[in-house]
Structure formats: C-alpha cells, structure tokens
Amino acid sequence: MASADQDEIEMQDVRLVLGTHAFCFDCRLPAGRIVAVSGPSGAGKSTFLNLLAGFERPDSGRVLMHGADVTAAYPAERPVSVVFQDNNLFAHLDVFTNIGLGIDPALKLGAEDRREISRALEKVGLASFERRMPATLSGGERQRAAFARALVRKRAVLLMDEPFAALDPGLRAGMSELLLGLHMETENTVIIVSHDPDEVRRIADFGVFIDKGAIVLAAPLTEYLAREDMPALRRFLHG
Ligand SMILES: Nc1ncnc2c1ncn2[C@@H]1O[C@H](COP(=O)(O)OP(=O)(O)OP(=O)(O)O)[C@@H](O)[C@H]1O
C-alpha cells in the first residue's frame, strides 16, 4: 500500500471494536483544507475523530499525519488540537488561564506567551474577556474561547466534534465565518464533524460520509454534493 503523502492525513485499514460496534476506516484526507465528517447518529463520526486525536487506538491498521506514523502516539504527541461541542473550558479558571493551558499545561507562561493569548482572544472577538469565568459566558462566547485555545496550540490539524451544534442557527453561521477566516489565516487542516448540511456546504472543501462504522464516501465537496447513488447521503443533504 502506498504510504501517506507529506500533505495528507491517512487512515490505512484502521479497525476498532468498541462493545458490540465494529469500525473500519480507510481514507486519505487533503491537508490544508476543511474536511466535513457527517453521517447518521451512531455511525461512528466521533470514533473517527477520536482515532485521529489519539483518544482511541486502532486494534489494527495505521494512522499517518503528514508522512509520520502516529498510530501509537499519545494525543499530546500528535500535531492536533481538539474542540468539542462543550466541556472545553475549566470552570474554576478564567478565560485567560484557560487559553494559557493550550500553550503549557503547567501554566509557566512567559511574556510572549501572554501576548500570544491576548492576540488569540482578540482574533475571536473576546479581547475584553480575559478575566471572565466560563460560567459568565454565553455558549457562543465559550466556543470562541475554545477556538482561541486551539489557535495558541499552533498545531497543523484542528479536530472539531460538532463545535457549533449547541448554538442557535444565527450564531452558528457567525462561527462558520470565524472558522473560515481563521482557516484562511492559518492554512491548517480542519476536520469537523457536522450534522448540518448547510454548514457543510458553507465551509467544507472535502466531504467524508460515515455509515454503520465505515467510510462510504470521501471526496471533494462538488463530487460529494452531486452523488446520487447513496440514499443515506441524499437524506442527509436533502432531508
Ligand atoms: N467505548 C464504547 N463502548 C461501546 N460502544 C461504544 C463506545 N464508544 C462508542 N460506542 C458506540 O459506537 C457507536 C458509534 O459511536 P460514535 O459516538 O462514534 O457515533 P457518532 O456518529 O458520533 O454519533 P452521534 O452523531 O450520535 O454523536 C455508537 O452506537 C456508540 O454507542
């Protein structure tokens, strides 16, 4: 089997069994793009992301990122940062400190680190929120703070598990814009689980569709949107 290009993220015949569920993922994803991952509830989207993040290890197969085999690497050793739907922030720490954890879990922050944190908060529109506690933020503001923490980590791959699902549609569109803007600036690879076909159309360059524990389509977005032969994909895109 050909090895991963420097520019790709690749799962080579990755297999995993969790309880009664068997997963089998095999795909190549383009680096520097926004990749949307969709599929029916329980299909395996979070498991797919967890395998990329290193929260799950495959029973067999390999995960490659930019030419490096990361199959056995711990999450912190991988070139990834992760934004979840919620639980992104530590409730007892203010926003500035939460972002600082993205740079150094021991919070030994130098002057340049502190400037970096302020810059990241500015980029996500939270410049005046440094000393606020997470409980005092709205859902959208909390997700902006989670974004800022991912930004300061400066990893090549940003993994997002339904980051905007808890937000109302107006806020969701605003967060999509923010993601697109930051992506243009950083040119990192974004792999985002989304239940929202409009969001996929708005932001993605490449679509992955997962059904019953396996990838049934991984294709550039124009091809992904045009496929007529997959009933589950048609249902997702057109209701
Ligand atoms: N640790 C585990 N042990 C047993 N079963 C698990 C485990 N983790 C996930 N599963 C099961 O595997 C299936 C896929 O889960 P996963 O969370 O990856 O799906 P999903 O596509 O993200 O779903 P949703 O859209 O509902 O969030 C589910 O039926 C889930 O219950």
Q: How does this model look, in words?
A:
With 239 residues, this protein is an alpha/beta fold. The protein has a domain at 88-153. It is 36% helix and 26% strand. It contains 8 helices and 10 strands. It has a 6-stranded mixed β-sheet with strand order 6-7-8-3-9-10, with helices on both faces. It has a 4-stranded antiparallel β-sheet with strand order 2-1-4-5, with helices on one face. α2 crosses α3 (111-123), α2 packs parallel to α4 and α3 (111-123) packs across α4. The termini are far apart. Bound molecules: adenosine-5'-triphosphate. Adenosine-5'-triphosphate (ATP) binds next to α1. One of its GO terms (molecular function) is ATP binding.
Instruction: Provide the spatial order of strands within the biggest beta sheet.
Output: 6-7-8-3-9-10
The sequence of SSEs as H and E is EEEHEEEHHHEHEHEEHH
Helix content: 25-40%
How many strands, which pairing sense, and closed or not: the largest β-sheet? 6 strands, mixed
Number of helices: 8
Bound molecules: adenosine-5'-triphosphate
Q: How many angstroms does the end-to-end distance come to?
A: 38 Å
The secondary-structure class comes to alpha/beta
Domain ABC transporter: 9-237
GO molecular function: ATP binding; ATP hydrolysis activity
InterPro entries: AAA+_ATPase, ABC_SmlMolc_Importer, ABC_transporter-like_ATP-bd, ABC_transporter-like_CS, P-loop_NTPase
Keywords: ATP-binding, Cell inner membrane, Cell membrane, Membrane, Nucleotide-binding, Translocase, Transport
